[in-house]
Amino acid sequence: MANPTQILQKYWGYSEYRTPQLEIINAVLAKNDCVVLLPTGGGKSICFQVPTLMLKGVCVVISPLIALMQDQVGSLTKLGIKAIALNSQLSQDELINVFDNIQFGTIKFVFLSPEKLESPFIQEKIKQLDVALVAIDEAHCISEWGHDFRPSYLKLNILKELSNNAPCIALTATATSQVLDDIKNKLQLAAPKVFKKSYFRNNLVFSVVKTDNIYNRLITILKKITGSVIVYAGSRRETKEVAQLLQRNQLKSSYYHGGLTLEEKQESYHSWMNNTAKVMVATNAFGMGIDKSDVSAVIHINTPHSIENFIQESGRAGRNGKTAHSIILSSDYNIQNSQKILNNSIPTIAFLKQVYANLNQNYRIAIGDLPQEEYEFILPEFCDNYKTNLIQTYNAIKVLERESILKIDENYRKKSTLKVLIS
Q: What pLDDT, in 10s, does the model give residues 182-197?
């Protein structure tokens, strides 16, 4: 059987990975559960891809974003490795055919979202597979203390049962000690081996620039940079306005945020990936799993939401090992505004109760009743009807979801729906 270095050489054309990747690969091959904390661009995918290619059976990969799954499937396919993503665009009949191909074919990697795993049909089909390894990407999403908490991640421990206790590898770029404990406990990992590498990147230059005119300084900086750039803005409206401003200043730019249609997102993403647009102006909806080696700079024109967000976002620069820059453009107004937004976005207990009462009133749900149907939910209309702050209301609903009081389906290709789970 080939060793890890031979696999790396065969498919990726290099063998310079030594530690910690080779240590992790060997730990997985020895059937250990593993938790892996490597910086953005630190080679996390290698840690589950290489052992899977050395083992009999398939690797089930849980990934939070369709775009991220498609990128990974595309990358593996280019290497001649068969992989597939199970997404909502596949019909039941297509899924049956896909699982037949997985079971009797040569597909080595099956990507799906944690929400997709909640389907009893999918669970039954996974149980029939010869699962060699389970990989949980962006594992920090499992923790309420993580910066991208996803309630559906809390149900991933069922994979232990479905995969006949195949080893599990949980991967993330950022995790506090609390998040790390949650990953180990909520995934029910058996005495996992933990691999941590410093977030320090010696090719990244960090700068905070105080300025009275952020947009003018941004244009000046961008005209001096030759490679690709990500500019993180604070709102959806600002992404579009800044991209248009840059276009007027002969800087080819695109913009990206969670409110765009799937087609608009793909068009914007591909124009940046193929360097038609030099600059991507985006909210933090853009970035998880982005793998572009020639990003010369990541620029924040608003204060980042958290240290974890900043580490993730700045780490998207300089993946090719060349010197790159992480720049925060700051002003006294920006700092004061960020503090105000933070204070206004945190819901109090009284506000949580108010939002819950408003939801019951809006859908005419009697006190103590437990309806089984789902409801169409349009957040701006709801906030307008009850005169509540949109961001605060959204955060309150996410807290109610986190406590399993209700469930909200945020599929941007259709109107959001909301289901009350307990009285």
A: 999 999 998 999 998 7
Please say if the pLDDT value at position 411 is more than 70: no
Distances (CA, A) of 375 to 30, 151, 229, 252: 48, 19, 41, 42
How many helices (H) and strands (E) are present in the chain, helices listed first? 17, 16
The sign one gets for the Cα dihedral 55, 60, 63, 68 is: positive
The residues pairing with 171 across neighbouring beta strands, listed in sequence order, are: 36
173-177 long-range contacts, Cβ below 8 Å, gap at least 24?
173/37, 173/38, 173/39, 173/40, 173/42, 173/44, 173/199, 173/311, 173/312, 173/315, 174/37, 174/140, 174/147, 174/199, 174/308, 174/311, 174/312, 175/37, 175/139, 175/140, 175/143, 175/146, 176/145, 176/308
pLDDT digit string (tens) for 57-110?
999 999 987 777 888 898 899 999 999 998 777 777 888 888 888 888 779 999
**CA-based R_g, the chain, Å:** 22
Residues 183 and 143: beta-carbon distance below 8 Å: yes
Mean pLDDT along residues 227-235: 93
* Predicted local distance difference test score (pLDDT) of residue 52: 94
State how far the alpha carbon of 108 is from the alpha carbons of 105, 141, 294, 296, 367, in Å: 9, 25, 29, 34, 50
Angstrom distance (rounded) from CA 151 to CA 141: 8
- Confidence tier at 401 by pLDDT (50, 70, 90): confident
- How many alpha carbons lie under 13 Å from residue 3 in its C-beta half-sphere? 7
Contact 184/157 with Cβ under 8 angstroms?
no
β-bridge pairing 375-376 and 417-420: antiparallel
Q: Give how far Cα 131 sits from Cα of 52, 58, 167, 191, 257, Å.
A: 10, 5, 9, 20, 36
Tell me the pairing of strands 83-86 and 109-112.
parallel
Task: Kindly give the pairing relationship between strand 324-330 and strand 204-210.
Answer: parallel
The region of weakest confidence among 207-216, 222-231, 409-418 is 409-418
pLDDT number for residue 19: 63
pTM of the full structure: 0.69
Residue with tokens 């490795």: 81
CA distance 254 to 392: 29
In three-state form (DSSP H/G/I as H, E/B as E, the rest C), the secondary structure along 142-185 is HCCCCCCCCHHHHHCCHHHHHCCCCCEEEEECCCCHHHHHHHHH
**CA gap 330, 90 in Å, rounded:** 45
Dist. CA 85–CA 70, nearest whole Å: 7
Structure tokens at 261: 């249609």
